[in-house]
Amino acid sequence: ESVLEVNNKLSGLLTEHFFDISLLNDSGIIVASSNADKIGLDRSNDEYFFNAKEKSYIKNPYHSNATGKDVIAFSSPLFQGHNFRGVIVALMDIKAFDKIILSPHFISETMESYLINKEGYMMTSSRLDNDTFLQKKVENENAKECLEDIEEHGSDYEIAEHTEKVMYFTDNLNHERIGSHYYVNRMKWCVLTEIDKYEVLL
After folding, report:
1. How many angstroms separate the Cα of 27 from the Cα of each of 49, 51, 64, 126, 159?
2. Does pLDDT of 164 surpass 50?
3. Distance from C-alpha of 61 to C-alpha of 76, rounded to nearest angstrom
4. How far apart are CA 22 and CA 124, in angstroms?
5. Which pLDDT score, from 0 to 100, does residue 124 have?
6. Under 8 Å CB-to-CB from 18, ≥6 apart: which residues?
């Protein structure tokens, strides 16, 4: 197939959230892409290439200078028989998480859910602040407990045991809150959910 035909097929795989799909050869060079301007770029030093030579890989969220968006990269190796032939990479707009986490189905008057990385920085928007991506650090007790579990247990962490915990804490505005969190083992992320105590106890 010609490069144009492959580009068109990759473009046909695009969705509302996966906006950029590229095919890299075994040297890390983009040989086909839904964004034709990227063809020929060398991505051999990018972790979404060298970490995906044997199995699928998810790169932590980052700002893509090439697309101007905050993204997560999903990559998988391509084999011909047992021979590594390259990597396919799909970029997802981080705003896809916002649509899930900030959905009205998940929100009450004071409830908020959000996603943080292992350093405690928000990867989704807040109900009160849209400019949070890798800028706002969450340092309340709910976040601290989840991050301490990441540090202490790492990949051996038992999710089922931990998600039964519910905690009371006071936030930085001196509001009494009830919170829980879910540890995303593979990525070392935390999904936090919090609500004002008075709303639950009404």
Report:
1. 9, 13, 21, 40, 38
2. no
3. 17
4. 25
5. 86
6. 90, 91, 92
Beta bridge partners of 78: 86
Residue % of the chain over a pLDDT of 90 = 21
* pLDDT score of 16 more than 80: no
3-state secondary structure (DSSP) of residue 79? strand
pTM higher than the cut 0.90: no
Radius of gyration of the chain (CA): 20
Helices and strands (H, E) in the chain, number of each type: 6, 9
Burial string for 68-89 (b: 16+ CB within 10 Å, else e) reads eebbbbbbebeeeeeeeebbbb
Residues 89-108 pLDDT 10s: 988 888 877 776 666 555 56
Of the candidates 6, 15, 198, the one whose C-alpha atom is nearest the C-alpha of residue 108 is 198
